[in-house]
Amino acid sequence: MTDRIAPRAWIGIALLVAAAAVFGRTEHPHTWWEKIPAYGALFGYLGTYALVFLAKSILAPRIRREGVSEE
Amino acid sequence: MPPMHPVVPMVLAAALLPLLPAVLRRIACVAAPVLSLSIIATAAAGNSWSFDFIGQQITLMRCDPLSRVFGLVFAVAAIAASLYGWHRRRLSEQIPALVYAGGGMSVVFAGDLLSLLIAWEAMAVSSALLVFAGRKPAAVAAGFRYLLIHLAAGGLMLIAITGLISAGHGLAFDHFTSDGWPAFTFLCALCINAAVPPLHGWLPDAYPASTVSGSVFLSTFTTKAAVYCLVRGFAGNEALIWFGAVMAVYGVVFATLEDDMRRLLSYHIVSQVGYMVCGVGIGTALALNGAVAHAVCHILYKSLLFMAVGAVIYSTGRNRLSELGGLYSRMPLTLIFYMIGVLSISGAPLLNGFVSKSLIVSGAGDASYAGAAFLLTLASVGTFLSVGLKLPYFAWGPTGRGRGDDGGAGEDLARAGEPPLHMLAAMAIPAALCVVIGLVPELLYRFLPNQPVAYQPYSAHHVFEMLLVMALGAAAFWQLRGKLTPHAGETLDLDQLYRRPAGWLANGVSVAFDRTADRLAGHFARGRDRLVDWTRDPTRLPGSFGDERDWFDENARRPPIGTGLSWMLATLALVAAALFFAS
Fold this sequence. Notes:
heterodimer, A: 71 residues, mainly alpha, 58% helix, flat, B: 583 residues, 3 domains, elongated
C-alpha cells in the first residue's frame, strides 16, 4: 500500500533528471552504474524501497518486539 | 619548558570543580575546552612531554597533522557540548564530561602505546559514568554493560601491547607492519570501540540511556578516537573495507526500525563510522583524507543532531517518535538546526557531509572497490530516509501521534517550546561549521593529513546527481510513509547473542559464589565455636561437645579448696622427705 505523489512533485523530479543529463559528467565514472543516465534517481528511489523492504518486511517481524520495554 | 599539554586545562578544571560554586563550575566547564582549543591551535609540530620509563620512551604529546585535526574538532565539540549542558548542576555529570573529553584528546595526542592505553581507560570509565548519570535503572544497567565491554577492550589492548613489546615492537604507536596476533588483538580492541558489527551493541544500548547533554558528549569521542587509532595504525587493512561498507548499511537498516530518537541516531553513528572504517581500509591518500574529513564532519553534525533531539526530549519529556508530532510550530528554531545537521549527514550539497562523503566514495571508486562504493551510496540513501525524513516527519510534522486536531502539537505537548538560549547557542556552533565547511571545503582540506588535497567535490553533474538521490528518496518515502509509522517497541540486535549467555554465565557464577561463600561461612562459624568452647574447658576434647550452653558449668571441673590444700601439703611433704634423705 503506497501513497500517491502529487504531479507537481514528479515535474520537479523530471526537471532534476533533465538537469543532471544536461550537465554532463566531468569526471571519469568509477563504476558501471555511474554510466546510467540519472543513476542518482534510480539509486534514491529503488534504494529507499529496498531498504524499507529489508527493514520492515524481512527484519521487523523477526527482531522487533512491539510495546515499550521497561528494563 | 615544554608547551602546555591540551589536556591540562581539562584535568585541572575537573579537579577544581568540587571546590567551585555552581556558576563558576559552569564557566569552568566551557572555559577548559576553550583553553585546550587555543593550545592545540598554537601547538608546534613534534614531540613533547617525553620521558623514559622502564627503558621505554613515553610521549604524552605528539603533535602532527593527524592528531592536530582530531584534537581541534574534539575541543570544538567539547566547547559546544559543555555550553549545551550549561543547565547541568550535578558534579557527577560535569566531572566525567571533562575527564571524558580530556581522555579523548589524550588518545589523539598519545605518542606511545602505554599513554594511549591509560587515556583509553580514562575515557572508558568517565564515559561509563556519563551513562550512569542517566540515573534510571535502565541507564545503570546499560552503564554496567558499557563498562564491561570497554574494560574488555582495554584488556585486549593491554594484552596486545604486552605481545608487541615481547615481539620487539616497543611502545611506539605508528603503522603496524606485522600481521601477528598482537596487532590483530589491538585491531579487535579498536573495532570494539569503533562499534564495528557484531561488536557494536553497546552503542545503541548506552548512548540513549544518558542525559541529553551526556549523549552529546558520548556521540563525539569514543568511536572517533577509535577511528583515529585505525587511521594511525591500520591504514590499508583490506578487511576493514568490507566491515566498514557493511556496517554503513547495517546501521541505516536498524535505524529505519527505531522508535527511540536517540537510539535511531546511535545506529547512524554505527553507519557513519562505517564510512570512516571503509576509508581507512582503502588506505589511499584520498580515502584516508576522506576518513579523517568524515570524522571531523561527523562529529559536527552528529553532535548537532543529538543536541536538537535532546532539546526535544528536554522540552517534551518524550524520546519516542510514536509519542511526538506537530512540533514544527513549537520548536521551529530547533527544527532548523536539526535540518542543517540532517542535510549534512545525508550529503546534501553546500554542507560538510557532501564534501567528506564524496572524498570517501571517490576514494573507493578510484581504488576499484565498486562494491564498497555501491554499499556506501546505498547507506547514504538510508541515512536520508531514516534520519532525514522519518525522524523530522514524525517528530515535527503535522501527522505524528502527538499532534493535535489542527496538526500542531497536541494537548500533551502544549507546553513544549524552544529550549533554553544556551542550548540554541550550542547548536549554532556545529551548525555554522557544517555550513562553512560545506561552502569552503579548503578550510577543512588544509588540516587533512595527506597534502596537497586537490579533490573538487562541486561539479554540476555531481550536485544534481546528489539532489536526485535525495529527491527520489523523498518521493519513495512519501509513498511508503505509512509503513514507516513508528510504533513503541524494541529491536533485538546482535548484542542479544552475547548478552543472554553472559547473563546466564554471570548468574551461574554468582550462584556458585554464594553457595561456596555460605559453606565457608558455616565451617568458619563452627570452628570458631569449638575454639571458644575448648578455651573455656580444655578437658572437653574436640568431637565430644554437646550443646555448650546447656552443659557448660564453670565450677564443674573445679576441685574443692580442701582437696587442693591436701594435695599441696602432701606434695610439700614428699619434697621435704626427698630432700632429707638426699642430704
